[in-house]
Amino acid sequence: MGKKIFVWLLCLVVVGLWGCGRAEVEPYSDAIIAYLALPPASDLYAGAEHYALCDIDNDGTEELLFGKEYVNDEIRLYTIYAKKNGKLVRQKQFGTIGEGGSICQTSLFKNGTVRVDRVDDEVEFYYYYFRFSGGRLKLQLLLLDNTYFIDNDYYDFTEAQIPITKEEFDRLRKEFEGDGQVVELDWKPLAEYGR
To answer: pTM for the complete prediction?
Structure first.
């Protein structure tokens, strides 16, 4: 009799733990399932292999992040979704660069800033800084490493360049990156979702 009660209690604990794990992903289950069903030719399909949850903007609701595996088992952030007014909204898809389609290096800082690094063919480093503003993830600043300029107008790249000094460049990086602490995301394989 005692053995049956123990087995029954063990089953309840396992089911309870499984339910807790699913509850944290549940608000995004429809998005994950829909994403997995996208054809590779779709504009929304990123070929992501992993997902994670993180409250980037510290509003008490976690955002859904998709990531792709890169070299040396590194997983790079590719797409961010957020729940807004009960609907799932794609906030940003960071894309690929270069002929091989390598994924941009993306860092998520504990202060809520997302930095995307891009290197062009001339070996100039671009740092794109995104933050949530008004419920949307928006580009706040673009810094170019070799010529030190600010560009707050992403779509009018050459017209909005404002030359700055190296000191100003460093100050702006610190302002957006804070103390430099990066969030360690708990990536989970998309293929194992729901198991």
So the answer is: 0.74
